[in-house]
Known about the structure:
Blueprint (H helix, E strand, L loop, with lengths): L10 H4 L3 H10 L11 E4 L9 H16 L3 E6 L9 H14 L7 E3 L4 H13 L3 E4 L3 H6 L17 H12 L9 E4 L14 E5 L13 E3 L1 H11 L4 E5 L6 H10 L7 E5 L2 E3 L6 H9 L14 H7 L3 H11 L6 E3 L1 H15 L1 E3 L1 E2 L2 E6 L8 E6 L9 E6 L2 E5 L19 E4 L4 E9 L5 E8 L16 E3 L2 E2 L3 E9 L24 E10 L10 E4 L3 E5 L9 E7 L10
Parallel strand pairs: 1-2, 2-3, 8-9, 10-11, 12-25, 14-20, 18-21, 23-27
Antiparallel strand pairs: 4-5, 5-6, 6-7, 13-24, 14-17, 15-16, 17-22, 18-19, 19-20, 23-24, 25-26, 26-27
Amino acid sequence: MADEIKNTENEELMQGNFIHSFIDEDIAEGGRFEGKKVHTRFPPEPNGYLHIGHAKAICINFATAEKYNGMCNLRMDDTNPTKEDVEYVDAIKEDIKWLGFDWEDRFYYASQYFEQMYDYAVELIKKGLAYVCELNAEQVKEYRGDTQTPAKSPYRDRPIEESLDLFERMKNGEFEDGKMTLRAKIDLSSGNFNMRDPVIYRINRLKHHRTGDKWCIYPMYDFAHPIEDAIEGITHSLCSLEFEAHRPLYDWVINNISAPAKPRQIEFARLGINNTVMSKRKLRELVEKSYVSGWDDPRMPTLCGLRRRGYTPKSIRSFIDQIGVSKVNSIVEYSFLEHCLRDDLNDSADRVMCVLHPIKLVITNYPEDKTEEFEIENNPNHPENGTRTVTFSRECWIEAADFMEEPIKKYQRLYPGNEVRLKSTYIVRCTGCKKDEDGNVVEVYAEYDPQTRGGNTPDGRKVRGTIHWVDCNNCAEAEVRLYDNLFTVPDPDVGDRNFLDYLNPNSLEVLNNCKVEKSLETAEAPKSFQFMRLGYFCVDNKDSKPQHLVFNRSVNLKDGFKKKG
């Protein structure tokens, strides 16, 4: 294989974006694509929802086309009808649009080329480069050979006319599934097992989501993919590293059919990320066995799940951009993805107040019938975003954790005799609390200093603690969902592990009767906020309604990613 895959990918090209280095060579004077527009494609199989790993391929293909003022196609690679569905087609389109990319009018299906693929297969047979084989799957495996032993097939020297006849009869449905295959005639002794007369067509009687029952034979990916690229005039077929060993077969197909173009395949490392799984099969199992609420569950690494969690296109594209393009597989920390989101929301999200675990604060010396209004900045990073008005009265909701009857060391919040600042309003001094018959605190009492309006201290005294609050007489209730990692270990599916054994039973905590500012009653998805002191939260895009607000925690305030350097 080392001889078949040219060793042009030297260390020099690995620095920076090596894909762009290759393309620069190709479009330069004397290059293989001199004078041609760079043309890429993103070809997902519509058998599931896209995840964060696919985002890397999306960004690489579309952004590369943008860099060179070229084009990028969107193609549904629907050559295997087993689990393909229009539901996934629509979801894929939505996800790519959400990320900010546009294929314009270049949307295709692999299935629209079935006739041409069949004709190219016939062309290979006529050239003596393909034959109908009657070995079943077990026999093919048995006769595959090893590094010292060539593969074999008793049908390899079948006459061309006989293979042509049998292949047509395969197409016409005369044979049962698995009875015959069409194999490329390449090299049974190749060190690259992908070149040992690979199967390029198989019989599979399954209804196709577009072509129905028209076809009962379907091309294999390694045969179909280069043909699709060639038909669409793709210059650079950018794909993940597991296809590197398949590149000789890709080139063999292109070079041995009357293809209208000769694309170049370039491979890059897939995105690996800890604390999750990204196998479509495993993600589907999580959904089908109801370990999660669906493909868009905010704990899922799917793009629709991340979107519902509150991830922004900017944060994901920044994440992909910063991890770069490599030829070496590696695992990226999930905390870095969170860092990218936090970085975006810190700049863009408005600040509001929400109380997750409410307890009533009664300001005993504040007039019972009085209500004041205060202006609070929406985003200190962007004064142009203006302010909002919040009301303040005698009774407020505060976090239960913001009061301790007997404070621990360095506790700077409410306890008898201590002063704190109520965000943007007044300094209050705690005077005590009320407990129920079980000894639980149900109300906290304090007195305010009227001279400290706005949180200032005219006498210059220092007040260390500042807490958030919500007016009891003018607020809204909300359900808040706190999400954590879906798995208890960073690598739930390595080795012999059953990933289901490592599901985190505490990956979702639902809080009801949370108190939020009244202004949030009209908040709609995908709006995100910083709940002061608590984290970044978004309006749930599925369950939230004006009469039942639902917020999802996107990421906490503390950055768990350790920056290097």
